[in-house]
């Protein structure tokens, strides 16, 4: 009987592993991002600045980031950010070309207690993007375009 229970447990665990490493990540992530962009429209100049690593604080940008974070299952108001999931989600949408979970974790830890939550998410995202292009990171790991891989089980 014990062997049967143990075998069942092992099979269940294997099914979870092979079912999909990142099954928490939405299959319609692009649609979620587009919907958030529609709900929280940013001026073209702001989008261009973001594309070049310059982020300025604004209520609209904060709400856009909060909307996408919740939609991508990387943030809840109750638990805050899951740093591994955040790194993976940013990697998938092209905003964290590095997928450096440790870097993302440092930013989440540093700013996780800021209130209100939209201000917190702004500071975390700004921190990640600033660190991604910092001279220390580029010198150590090369430019972001050369960093590969982002598989997680979060």
TrEMBL record:
Pfam families: PBP_GOBP (PF01395). The keyword Signal applies. GO terms for molecular function: odorant binding. Keywords: Signal. InterPro entries: PBP/GOBP (IPR006170), PBP_GOBP_sf (IPR036728). Residues 1-19 form the signal peptide. The keyword Heme does not apply. This is Uncharacterized protein LOC131804614.
